[in-house]
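step 3/5: co-fold with 5HU
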Amino acid sequence: MNIFFSGSIRGGRDDRDLYADLIEHLERHGTVLTEHVGTENVEQTEAAAGITDGEIHDQDVEWLRGADIVVAEVTTPSLGVGYELGRAAETGKPVCCLYRPDSAHELSAMIRGNDAFEVIEYRDLEGVESRLEEFVREYR
Ligand SMILES: O=c1[nH]c(=O)n([C@H]2C[C@H](O)[C@@H](COP(=O)(O)O)O2)cc1CO
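step 4/5: write tokens
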């Protein structure tokens, strides 16, 4: 199973460690196409490799097309994550959005208000693992 994991990069990296943990968890169930979202210094690595924003966009959309499911951590608001979710919604792929309500960020109505998205509210990794697993198993 191919999994597209979406998480904030230029929107802010406060949750980077959590993304890495979620990706590690998801990798037990399939291939995470966007492993770099959880890695340190992702932008510096892309810049050093001479990858342009256009290439980042096109590669991302290609991975999105090849994904069976989409899992997004949406607590840190990100234009890129919102864009990916909008495109995913158009394809009808299963989308799961993970949100921590005890954060300072209110979840957008464009995410919570889309009935096609499964929104899981949680506090920490331990509290979300089994629900995430349920979601993944549903589409395996
Ligand atoms: O360097 C990047 N590489 C990359 O893959 N992305 C994709 C994956 C993330 O799920 C999403 C993050 O968007 P943003 O950078 O606007 O927070 O966009 C985004 C960037 C930077 O915008």
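step 5/5: annotate
The domain at 2-138 is CATH 3.40.50.450 (Rossmann fold).
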